[in-house]
Amino acid sequence: MKAIELADLLAGAILDRVVAASPRAVRVGLDCADPEAAARLADVVGGGLSRQGQAVAVVSTQDYLQRRSVRLEYGGTDVEAAYSRWVDHAALSREVLDPVVDPVSPRWLPRLWDAEADR
Q1: What percent of the chain has pLDDT over 70?
Q2: C-alpha torsion angle, residues 10, 48, 109, 98 (rounded to 10)
Q3: Residue 29: exposed, middle, or buried by beta-carbon count in 10 A (0-12, 13-18, 19+)?
Q4: Would you list the DSSP string of the chain?
Q5: What is d(CA 106, CA 97) in angstroms, rounded to the nearest whole number?
Q6: CA-based angle 110:113:104, to the nearest 5?
Q7: How far apart are CA 72 and CA 92, in angstroms?
Q8: Close Cβ partners of 101 (under 8 Å, ≥ 6 residues apart)
Q9: Nearest to 60 by CA among 31, 17, 26
Q10: Residues 6+ apart with CB under 8 A from 50
């Protein structure tokens, strides 16, 4: 089976789960070793939800990375540090995950940090 077929099957399974989960706002997180693969999968899932009439916001953790000094504190090849310290989880929760399900004011910040410019 080709990788693209597996991605389509995975996206379909995720869509089925999300649609069955609730008619309310649902937050879906995709974790993948390859950020580009995760982004492609998120786009497929988001597109499928959009076609079903759901409001969709796709946000990348790459836009919520810590400052370069924090990310590289343990070196650029420390896998544990990359997994546990690179993403600013508190900011992601505060700026996206919590507000997006607020029934009164569902506003969220699509991007917090430009990791390339470190600003």
Answers
A1: 92
A2: -70
A3: exposed
A4: --HHHHHHHHHHHHHHHHHHH-SS--------SSHHHHHHHHHHHHHHHHHTT-------GGGGBPPHHHHTTT-TT-HHHHHHHSB-HHHHIIIIITGGG-SS-----S----TTTT-
A5: 10
A6: 30
A7: 20
A8: 24, 25, 27
A9: 31
A10: 56
- Angle at CA of residue 79, ends 74 and 82, nearest 5°: 70
Nearest CA-CA partner of 48 in 87, 12, 22, 74: 12
Q: Residue 2 is encoded by which pair of tokens?
A: 């080709």
36-88 per-position pLDDT tens digit: 888 888 888 888 888 888 878 888 888 888 888 888 887 778 777 777 788 89
Alpha-carbon span 73 to 100, nearest angstrom: 32
Q: Round to whole Å and give the CA distance between 46 and 59.
A: 10
Q: Which of 85, 60, 80, 72 minimizes the C-alpha distance to 118?
A: 72
**What amino acid is encoded at 26 in this protein?**
V
pTM exceeding 0.90: no
Tokens describing residue 48:
């499928």
